[in-house]
Design goal:
Elements (H helix, E strand, L loop, with lengths): L1 H13 L23 E10 L4 E4 L5 H18 L3 E3 L9 E6 L8 E5 L3 E6 L2 H20 L5 E9 L5 E7 L7 H13 L4 E5 L1 E2 L2 E2 L8 H4 L16 H13 L3 E8 L4 H6 L28 H16 L5 E5 L8 H17 L3 E5 L12 E4 L3 H9 L3 E4 L2 H4 L21 H5 L15 E8 L7 H8 L2 H10 L7 H17 L15
Parallel strand pairs: 2-3, 2-4, 4-6, 8-9, 8-17, 9-12, 12-13, 13-14, 14-15, 15-16, 16-17
Antiparallel strand pairs: 1-7, 5-6, 5-7, 10-11
The structure holds ligand TNX.
């Protein structure tokens, strides 16, 4: 019998087919994060060989773009070449990209059988999300030193929410373009599709405004604890936006007004009610600064800032902050938000703002970002707006894990990895459910962190949980099975040299 199968194998080698077909595989056990809606295994293996051929319609730009990405990732992960629409079909195994109808742009399906991998989606973003699943499959196979095959079966997947975001505060401490790009790569791996950049605050102004150069020349020089700071030129910002866009991540710029404006007030005396420049600020108090509603120039300033940033921002949202304006009186606050939303509209964007903005006459296309006050969130709904869920008690990446955490604050809560994962946006605030919620965003304020390693400590691994809350169906989410997958992602993060927080509550692999 043995001799017979040896002979058979030899014969099949001669005829270019494979001998390894006996391997038993378990696609369903793959630790995908976010977990897919459907994963069904068929138990065999697709063998990864040199010269696999990727078939796609070259007339279709979405498919072309997908093919180029898949080729470079496949070759980097597997060390095997992937040919684009060339070679002899029945000699080589194949991958195929096919446009099909799906209800959602980001939906996709991956069919793996012994001879072929077929990826279907209706849009480039759907194909991209499929590629990140393939990427995780390849990475985990590699980690198990089995990267000569992939398990067969079907993955059918689509996001729960259309908006899955991460916010990074680059004002309290500045993060370089390279650091932000590194963060973007990781957001992409977990199917996050929005990066909200908190570009201005009391401690520093971080984006070049050509008509108001002192904002960055002077107001960009400070940060919490000192005078290093930094800022992005418009060219650098455009580069970041393009880098994110290439990963189907939309950048949402935030200019926080009317409070949180000390850096601007320190840069231009005319923005202050008393006409005197403020001092640069390097502490971490909030609520002491405000723009001056009575100065005509204030609204010229806002017009210039919003015009310049909107012109280099392809995404639909402009975030105007609006939080903790404790030094602005209520009437002035309402004037500020009302006038500023008109400017945002004039430059073709939709307003996003922290939940406080609902006290003004917000428009139905506004998104209120719920962080602290449930009444504000429901108030926004009454005005026809939608809500983005960022509850500080569950979703703030800058909250400490526990009282021993090296970095972070704890004014809202300690947020263990489990607490960060184990909540449901649809059930958190009475009256705010499904269709009122555009999605989930995990903000990372940077009072206590100043470089990528410190950022990683707070963001990882909790960010993976927010990615799953935003993408996966509630019925699919369950802490015990999530924890098992998370442990595998600990190994994956290690392999990428990402220093995540090794919570002692989780039995990580050594
Ligand atoms: C509250 S959340 C703030 C930020 C701070 C953060 C620290 C929000 C809209 N405002 O200004 O950085 O707490 O956790």
């Amino acid at each position: 019998m043995k001799q017979f199968s040896f002979l058979l194998c030899l014969l099949s080698v001669i005829f270019f087919t494979h001998c390894e077909q006996q391997i038993e595989t378990h696609l369903e056990q793959f630790p995908l994060i976010p977990i897919a809606n459907v994963m069904e295994e068929t138990g065999s293996a697709f063998f990864i060989k040199d010269n696999t051929v990727l078939y796609f319609d070259e007339q279709d730009e979405d498919l072309k773009r997908t093919a180029i990405k898949l080729k470079s990732n496949w070759e980097a992960q597997t060390n095997n070449s992937l040919l684009l629409n060339e070679g002899i079909p029945f000699l080589h195994s194949k991958i195929e990209l096919i446009k099909s109808d799906f209800d959602q742009e980001e939906a996709y399906e991956i069919n793996i059988d012994k001879k072929a991998i077929v990826i279907r989606a209706s849009a480039a973003s759907g194909f991209y999300r499929a590629l990140t699943s393939v990427d995780q499959l390849l990475r985990f196979q590699k980690l198990s030193s089995n990267l000569n095959f992939l398990p067969t079966g079907v993955i059918r997947d689509a996001p729960k929410y259309s908006y899955r975001g991460a916010m990074l505060d680059v004002s309290r401490h500045f993060f370089t373009v390279e650091e932000v790009k590194q963060y973007i790569d990781l957001l992409a791996l977990y199917k996050i599709n929005h990066l909200h950049l908190h570009l201005s605050d009391d401690q520093g102004w971080r984006i070049e405004i050509k008509s108001w150069p002192n904002l960055t020349e002077y107001g960009g020089r400070s940060e919490v604890g000192g005078m290093t700071g930094g800022f992005y030129t418009q060219e650098e910002y455009k580069d970041l936006v393009a880098y994110a866009q290439d990963r189907f991540i939309t950048v949402v710029p935030e200019i926080d007004i009317p409070g949180h404006t000390n850096a601007a007030l320190a840069s231009y005396p005319e923005l202050n009610c008393n006409g005197k420049t403020a001092e640069l600020y390097t502490g971490i108090e909030v609520g002491f600064s405000t723009l001056c509603v009575d100065n005509e120039i204030t609204f010229q300033f806002l017009d210039d800032v919003i015009r310049e940033i909107s012109a280099i921002t392809p995404g639909e949202y402009f975030h105007i902050g609006g939080d903790e304006s404790l030094s602005t009186n209520e009437e002035d606050y309402i004037v500020f938000i009302n006038k500023t939303q008109d400017i945002v509209e004039k430059y073709g964007k939709n307003v996003m703002g922290w939940d406080e903005i609902q006290s003004s006459n917000i428009k139905p296309n506004t998104v209120a970002q719920y962080w602290a006050d449930a009444d504000n969130a429901t108030g926004a709904l009454k005005k026809g707006a939608k809500v983005l869920m960022s509850p500080a008690k569950y979703a703030y990446l800058d909250m400490q894990y526990d009282s021993l955490s090296t970095y972070g604050l704890h004014w809202a809560s300690y947020i263990s990895i489990k607490r960060g994962y184990d909540w449901n946006p649809d059930e958190l605030v009475e009256g705010i459910t499904g269709e009122n919620i555009i999605g989930v965003e995990a903000p990372l304020w940077s009072e206590t962190i100043s470089n990528f390693e410190e950022l990683s400590y707070l963001a990882f691994p909790r960010l993976l949980g927010y990615a799953e809350i935003g993408w996966s169906k509630t019925e699919q989410r369950e802490w015990d099975t999530y924890q098992k997958r998370l442990i595998e992602h600990g190994v994956l993060l290690d392999s990428m040299s990402i220093k995540y927080y090794h919570s002692p509550n989780i039995p990580w692999k050594k």
